[in-house]
Amino acid sequence: MSADLILPCPFETEVSLAARAYYGIGGTARFFAMPQSVAELSTLLLWNRPRRFPLALMGSGSNTLFSDAAFPGIVISFEKMQHLCWLSDDELFCEAGVDNTAIAQELLSAEKGGGEWLYRLPGQIGATVKMNARCFGGEVSQITAGIQTLSVDGQLQWRSPEEVFHGYKHTSLMETPEIVVAVLLRFPQRRTAEEIRLMMEGHEAERSRRHHFGFPSCGSTFKNNYTLGRSSGHIFEELGFKGVREGGAMVSEHHANFIYNKGTASAEDVLRLAARMRAAALERTGVALELEVQCIGLFDDELLVSTGVSSIPDRQDASKGWSGLLCSPEQKEALPALSPWLLMQGPLVGYFGLDREFPAGVQVKVEQLISMEEARMAPGAPFLRWTTENINPDLFSLQPISPAAFTDELWRYSVSELFIGGAADGSYLEFEMTPAGHWVALRFAAPRRRAEGYERLSPERWCGLVHLIAGEGFFGMELSWALLEPFSRNLTVQCCASSGKGEYGSFPWWNSPSSPADFHQPDQFFRVALR
């Protein structure tokens, strides 16, 4: 394989998607990528920008129908992003690849109620949030406190539930090229382990009674339309679809909204059967039901139209269409919004990823203030803004008494920190600041080795390059292009904090932290795309 086609994260080539997805259906993917962290995922997306391989997300494949045709691009799996930890007594942080059942089992151990319905719900929490999944009276929007997303152009953003959830099985993330990379769930309710166990066992028994796992399927084929007064399953049962076959696909004899793979089904078998069901329901009710299963890959366009699935026409064959792509060679890059541009924003998470190891509720943000073209014209103007927000007094309780703003060994106190890397020579910058305005800046030639001429700390070296900012509930710095230009071709960023009492936080979070805590690891910093 050409060195230019070595992906910047763990990957496999020529992978059978049928062997990976619940349905047991699908062609071969040219690349199957398994990023281990949000930083690796961002690097992969930016690596792909000039190459323009089609991208698709898999999750666990529990709600995905892959085309039988070969997939010529990259299928991204979250199987190596399964970290979860409690940020506070009520808030559970989960990477996108955490299985729903694993969350339910964690809640059982913690004696927390409200998530019993997640038990044996196929899928991972990232996809569960993206589609606002629900069952047994529970809905993921009811337990979500925040969503971390990554856009295809590398923007790492913190989303509130109000921004994302738009009602029954509908979210804003279904309509934008954003990837859910982590979710913050909130569980304030306490229940005994026995109460939780009984509810979980009841949900599992109900799934068994309905033969949910009798044969490979993706669960409900169509969403319910509550204006009809009954579920889609009841409509298809009225229409006599139980047991109806199309090739190797068959409607369940126990639940008329499930389409099974009886062992030899193709993707086209499933869609033909779904199209028959949809047409019959439309004739009976006058309502075109919406497919719940996500189709990914190249399909016959008439089949997609007949099931209500949108598509992008194939360039070689007008009778075919691409569906379910995160991005494709045919799609044009969206023009960026007016400045400032958000590069990354989110909560500080405990360095080691342990339960309650770091004071919760502190957010950091990095923004690009002007374009690189404008910056070159005015190199002394502020180019990058870094802020720490929602200041938690539990974190920033240890402050220096020195009257001097520029303070050596500031790391001994409660500080927020920013690292900037990406220079061709391996050098990087470190900035530290407190809510009271104490600060320090350092330049390193290699990990923990100060650059020549910067061994002795002095504020004069940073004059005109660093500007302190502060306001109600936030503090930070603005950094000029003249300072950052050597890093701009491959800019990487890492936000951190220390309480001064042995508590360390980071954003983005790391999946392979060292012990003792050490933020001087430029290879783990998050790569951003400047405009």
- What CATH architecture label of the largest domain applies? Sandwich
CATH fold descriptor of the largest domain:
Immunoglobulin-like
Number of strands: 31
What is the alpha-carbon Rg in Å?
25 Å
Q: Considering DSSP H and I runs of 4 or more, what fraction of the residues is helical? A: 10-25%
Outline type? globular
Quickly name the level 1 CATH class of the largest domain: Mainly Beta
Uncertain stretches:
none
Structural class: alpha+beta
Distance between the termini: 32 Å
Please outline the major beta sheet.
8 strands, antiparallel
Strand and helix map with partners:
Blueprint: E1 11-16, E2 28-33, H1 38-48, E3 55-57, E4 64-66, E5 71-76, E6 84-86, E7 91-95, H2 100-110, H3 125-130, E8 134-135, E9 138-139, E10 144-151, E11 156-159, H4 161-164, E12 178-186, H5 193-209, H6 232-238, E13 245-246, E14 249-251, E15 259-261, H7 267-285, E16 294-300, H8 301-306, E17 312-313, E18 320-323, E19 341-347, E20 349-350, E21 363-368, H9 372-377, E22 382-389, E23 415-421, E24 428-433, E25 439-446, E26 449-450, E27 466-471, E28 474-480, H10 481-484, E29 492-498, E30 504-507, E31 526-527
Parallel strand pairs: 2-5, 3-5, 4-16
Antiparallel strand pairs: 1-2, 6-7, 7-12, 8-9, 10-11, 10-12, 13-14, 14-15, 16-18, 17-18, 19-21, 20-30, 21-22, 22-28, 23-24, 23-29, 24-25, 25-26, 27-28, 29-30, 29-31
Helix pairs in contact: 2-5
